[in-house]
Amino acid sequence: MDPKEGNYHLSDLNISMEQRVATADQGCSYTLVQLEGFIDAANYPRFEKALERLVESGRHQLVLDFRGVQYINSTGISGIIRFHNLCKEAGGTFLLARVARNVGITMHLLGVTSVVQVARDLEEAEQLLEGGSPAVEVEALKSDSGAPRNVPVLSDPSGPAGAVVMLLPSTGHFAKICKKRVEQRGGKAFLFHEVDQLMGSIDAIAPDLIVVDKRVHNSNKVVESIKLAPRHALASVILIHPKDADLQDVRGFRVWENDSLVDPFDLANLFVLTESEVRRVTRDRKLFTQQVRFQFEGHQDSIDQGLSLGGALIAKLPLTEQERNALHSALKEGVDNAVRHGNSARPDRRVTVNYVVEPRRVTMLVEEEGEGFDHEFFLGQIEEKDAFDRAKERMREGGRGGLGILLMHRCSDRLEYLGKGNVVRIEKRLHA
Q1: Is the pTM of this model over 0.85?
Q2: 163-284 homologous superfamily
Q3: Which of 107-116, 131-140, 338-347 has the largest mean confidence?
Q4: Fewer CB within 10 Å, N or C, the chain?
Q5: Burial of 386 (0-12, 13-18, 19+ CB in 10 A)
Q6: Of the spans 125-129, 278-282, 405-409, which averages the highest pLDDT?
Q7: Mind spelling out the 3-state secondary structure of 259-312?
Q8: Which fold is adopted by the domain 13-151?
């Protein structure tokens, strides 16, 4: 997050699109897709949906501006290759531009740069759209074999060196291979085969990254336990799922991991994810003290689980008891509005809460899957002296009163709706 602007990038993905014409004499029309944030397990469906809409509407000249992308997982990389092929089959062109070094190396290791053209800037991307050749002077890096490899990406500091905890099955050589790889890259590796052993040692280790194989007995609650503890909440969690697992399956209530892999997978993918996540966590710790993303369906027991987790998080904030109670009321009201109004009380629709703690404030983003509403009208009413009476009058007339918005406003220091109104942001200042 940019502390000055208050724009969140951690575990979020912002997507904007703009139709452009290349500056050449016979400039072709193309769509510039600007991305900012993380293309991870939680955000990939939005990334995929945005590109699907473009391709299905006949837009096959695409330039993806990766300047603001801090991380992409293997699923996102597979999607890039798929949409490149779709554009190519339709006679179009699919390019990447301004890719940061750590993201570019991930792509290179997984073979993307041998398939998809990468431009250093938007000017070069337009030249490539016109049939030109890359003018980039790429940096020569050394592969494990010592041979040079060319990766056309922007510069970035080398080599993560953090503490990595791994909860992996004891059978086979997989666990030992992973541990050795981390140590070879300058990190500290701690290997566990049982959940109790990991949780009993985690405070002493204070890991940057935790890799959890879901085949380990009782591993299903590890993510929630880690994210709930403020000391470890910024540690990245990578889950290894069993074969044919549905990564988007919420099944009532879910605390999101930072990324996922489904068995079987290329071991190089895990190594790339591990190194990228350690880099990210090091940066995030300079800005945040805690970040938790959880999601639940519209069944009452799932809603209760979400509110219970939210209450447990708020209870640990440096606020007075009255302020904590008020903030929890604001969260409950935001969730209730999301379930009843935004999602029309449909049990299959989901509510997502992104909870972020900084040194001086806490922010909760509550997102639903509805079509939004005229939030500007209701926000314009909350500062009026008779706001409560006006809200009751609107309710008597059969309309949406806005009492919930008024309550959230009075229980927080800042309240705003984002986009079309299906995301509410609730902010509270913290005591020093």
Answers
A1: no
A2: Response regulator (3.40.50.2300)
A3: 338-347
A4: C
A5: exposed
A6: 125-129
A7: EEEECCCCHHHHHHHHHHHHHHHHHHCCCCCEEEEEEEECCHHHHHHHHHHHHH
A8: Transcription Regulator spoIIAA (3.30.750)
